[in-house]
Every structure is written in C-alpha cells, then in structure tokens.
C-alpha cells in the first residue's frame, strides 16, 4: 500500500516523524493534534482553569472605591486588608489596563498594601 494513502495529510507525516524522533531519543512527551487526538507517554491535564482564590468580583469590589476617582498624576494606597498583596496587585493591574490603558499607570507592593499611580 502506498504511504500517502495510509497517512491522510502532510501534517500527519510531520507529527509521525516528530513522534519517531522523540521515541528514538527515549523522551517522554504528549502531543495533542488540532483535532484533539492525544499521543505520547505523558498524561495531559485537560483542565485549563485553576480554582479562584477569591470569589469573582471580590477583589474589584474591595479596591474600586480607592481608584474610581483617581486622576492623572495622582496616587493612592490600597491597604492589603484580608487579601494577599500579589493577588490584589494582579487584579488591580488588570482593571487599570482595561480602564485606563496599558502603560498609563504603575503599581507596587509595599508593607501596608498596594500603591498605584496614574501617569496618563
């Protein structure tokens, strides 16, 4: 039988070649093809979501009163409260990027909380 009739696409040829190379090198691997077929000797964790540390909206509801009226050239300190500063800073930065624009602010973690300054 002709090799081209056994392998349906050039992509399949490339994947099979990659598998052969990895097996010859005694590598562990996992491959997921565009159509979802899984190959290899490693388990694949299909879970793309990680559990939330805080319920959706909890962080925003906490810091929003501090930043809602901040103007260009102003800064504010948001106390840590019950939150881990890294989580507070991450959520705050996402909000600032969405609402003020990327590169228009800076945040930093200090002992008492997260400080944010708006430049533009």
Mean pLDDT across every amino acid position: 90
Order of the strands making up the biggest sheet: 3-5-4
Distance between the termini: 67 Å
Number of strands: 5
Taking all Cα atoms into account, the compactness measure Rg is 24 Å
Number of helices: 4
Quick one: biggest sheet? 3 strands, antiparallel
Describe the global form: elongated
Helicity, as a percent range:
25-40%
Order of helices and strands: HHEEHEHEE
**Classification by helices and strands:** alpha+beta
Describe the secondary-structure layout.
Layout: H1 3-6, H2 10-24, E1 30-32, E2 38-40, H3 58-67, E3 75-79, H4 85-99, E4 105-110, E5 113-118
Antiparallel strand pairs: 1-2, 3-5, 4-5
What is this entry, summarized?
The chain contains four helices and five strands. With 120 residues, it is α+β, with helices and mostly antiparallel strands.
Please give a structural write-up.
The chain has 120 residues and is of the alpha+beta class. Helices cover 37% and strands 19% of the residues. The chain is built from 4 helices and 5 strands; from the N terminus they run H-H-E-E-H-E-H-E-E. The chain has a 3-stranded antiparallel sheet, covered by helices on one side. Strand 4 and strand 5 form a beta hairpin. The protein starts with a helix and ends with a strand.
